[in-house]
Amino acid sequence: MKGIDDIVTIRNDEEFSQAALALFRFQAERCEPYRQYLELLGINPAEVCRVEDIPCLPIELFKSHTIYCGEGEPEVVFTSSSTTGQTPSRHPMARLSIYERAFTAAFRQFYGDPSEYGIYALLPSYLQRKGSSLVYMADHLISAAGAGGFYLDDYERLIADMEADPKPKILLGVSYALWELAERYAPCLRNTIVMETGGMKGYREEIPKAEFHRILTSAFGVERIHSEYGMAELTSQAYSLGEGVFRTPRWMKVLVRDINDPFTLLAEGSRGGVNIIDLANIYSCAFIETQDVGRRFADDSFTIEGRIDRSEIRGCNLLIQ
Questions:
Q1: Distance between CA atoms of 311 and 180, rounded to whole angstroms?
Q2: Cβ count near 59 (within 10 Å)
Q3: How far is 247 from 290, CA to CA, in rounded Å?
Q4: 26 φ/ψ sector (left φ>0, alpha ψ -120 to 50, else beta)
């Protein structure tokens, strides 16, 4: 099994497949909930020879089970955001250095050296709770950038600080906070990448992503809106440089499944449930069946088009019962 330095230097599909199959066999043996899930499905890990045949673990199990196969206690347990009454997902991280290596390598692949930017984070709902992997990533990137910071709701100070910063800038914000900034101030953001992450979190109405991006581009005077796609259950992030089309780092892959038959993968361009393989999830589970709906294309890019309605699920979430 490869370590994180080997994972983030994967160069091609062959190396990805070799690493994925090795990690699958390791996790099938060492990650107890995943091992049980495979047994209930009647899967013999030794007989799985293609990446496409590796079963993905339903993401709900990160709420009900400890998805972990590291030695000793994890250094941190990241948690997902949740509304009142919901159970958050928990992702034990064996070593923070693994997470840092993965998110730094992914950022460099798409944007270059963090020190080239000022990085400004508008993440109020994430800052107001503990255990956010997004806040940890943003804090690390801000430190590497040497310029920028976190802004809870002080929009005027944010605008003033960005206007005074001569470097290229990235404004990373949760969607509803960016919308509020656009609506209340409509600042002209020169030399700035605007990057949204996440939905409205119940603070604003959900609207089509294209319409939301049009509101932001008009208010901020930028050509396009970038997006970050990540979650507490992952170690890596995918990025969209515009138009809502995401690309993954080389050690991450997206597949699309039939919503009513989660063990059937769909052809390129078809709409279905999103499966994610994140090889940086070394000591949890790298093979995840998410509740997102999207499409994957021939160049391995993908789009996210919403969430699966619980009433549509016909899959076999065996360990949740």
A1: 33
A2: 24
A3: 17
A4: alpha
Amino acid in the structure at residue 154 = D
Q: Torsions phi, psi of 52, nearest 5?
A: -65, -20
Residue 89 and residue 81: Cα distance in Å, rounded?
8
CB 239 within 8 A of CB 247: yes
Q: Under a CB-based contact definition with an 8 Å cutoff, are residues 315 and 262 in contact?
A: yes
CA distance 177 to 196: 9
Q: Please give the Cα distance from 137 to 300 (Å, whole number).
A: 25
| Owner of token pair 């064996």 | 94
Q: How far apart are CA 169 and CA 117, in angstroms?
A: 5
CB under 8 Å to 246, separation ≥6 — which residues?
A: 227, 229, 238, 239, 240, 254, 301, 302, 303, 304
> Which CA distances in Å does 197 have to 89, 154, 161, 222, 231?
18, 19, 21, 17, 10
Strands 226-229 and 238-240: antiparallel
Each as own residue / partner, the long-range contacts of residues 190-193 (CB below 8 Å, 24 or more positions apart, any chain) are 190/221, 191/167, 192/162, 192/168, 192/220, 192/222, 193/111, 193/117, 193/168, 193/169, 193/222, 193/226
Tens of pLDDT, residue by residue over 177-233, are 999 999 999 999 999 999 999 766 666 777 888 999 999 999 999 999 999 999 999
pLDDT tens string 26-36: 999 999 999 99
Contacts (Cβ under 8 Å, ≥6 apart) of 29: 35, 45
Query: Against a cut of 0.85, is the pTM above it?
Result: yes
**3-class DSSP state of 257:** strand
